[in-house]
Amino acid sequence: MRITTSRRRLAAVLVAAAATAAVSLASPAVSYADDTDGTATPSQDQFKALYDVTQKYHPLGVYGNDDYTLTVVALPADTPPADGSEMQSEFPAGMNVLGYISQFTKDEEQQLEEEVMAKGWIADSTVEYHIGVSYNAKDDVVEVATDAPESDTQALADAHPGKIEVQRTRFETQENRFNDGSPYNGGASIVNSSSNATCTAGVPIKHVFTGTRYMTTAAHCGRLGDVYQQKQSNGNAGAFFGRTISELRGLDTAVMNAGGYRGWIWAGGSSTSTTEKWIEGGTSVWRGMKVCVSGQTTFNHCGHPVSNTRFSASPTITGGNGFAYDQGGTRNSNGTWTGRTTDPGDSGAPVYATDSSGSAAFIAGMHSGRFLNSRNCGCWTMFGPRLGPVLESANADLVYASDR
Fold first, then answer.
1. How far is Cα 95 from Cα 34, in angstroms, rounded to an integer?
2. Hey, which end of the chain has fewer CB within 10 Å, N or C?
3. CB distance 56 to 88 below 8 Å
4. Where in the chain are the domains?
5. Which region among 85-89, 291-295, 304-308, 367-371 has the lowest average model confidence (pLDDT)?
6. Class assignment of domain 169-404?
7. Of 168 and 35, the one with more pLDDT
């Protein structure tokens, strides 16, 4: 283990290990590093062990380079030095981990995110621009992705020099399986009978006191009171699936009832597949964790690395209650990635991890949309609400396969 106090030394470690052309870190007071050479990509068990260690010290964020041979952990500015040293001693063996003290306290970073999400910096308040905001542990800045005008984003960056970096991009909400019957699975293809918007059923949940069962989907697919029907493979609307009885504010989640739902999700890779997985439980998410998404348009695909565990996307997901996961795969010579991505109609889909057998699903959250992340990975980054805030807001638990 080694302790680094120089910004130049920290940047040099990042450049050498992450192979990035330039690194701009905001004068960390102290950093903590493992001596590992970082030539091998860590296992999922190592990523989980690192997550368990870092959560004890309440990090602002975690960054990993493209092949995850280097992981950077940013601790709040008011972290006691003893905590940093103790965290350093608990880094998992065999991982190349660099920890440092950020320019932000947790309150300062959250206040800056809230200011961005409030949109007071946008001159024309009559236009509904989209905003994604998260803390970037690589550069120790609050990163803003938005389709707002450049004049507004420049003013925002100028008001917070060295603290905000802006990526102008476009956002896509994704409103666009098939012969399911009640009780329905999550991951089913559904259509809004009022707007004709096609989306994906999310996960079945049950009220913690009454046991009444519900199904989630993306709130942006419709409005309170809308009726959803099963969407068949020929495009026709089928049987009644449910009616929206509530919308969970800041979570892009609508809750439906009356359709009859069970603790399974569809997980096939084609329109005719009968593959399904049982819901074994929920899971938290951590940087580098590989997840699957199962939507009605692109079907089931896996291997998406979680890149952010506290993500907001205006106007749908607020308070850092979302998470982001990248396209994944391998990088081509032209900079594109081989991993799958979502398309319109996948909104609401369950996002999950599997056990070693590949048969059980551990729900991480739901899918909401995607944006082209040219600044970081040069890939499509997908995002949605985490499961925990959804269950808390709905006063609910998952419906498990073992529930009768």
1. 7
2. C
3. no
4. 2-101, 106-168, 169-404
5. 85-89
6. mainly beta
7. 168
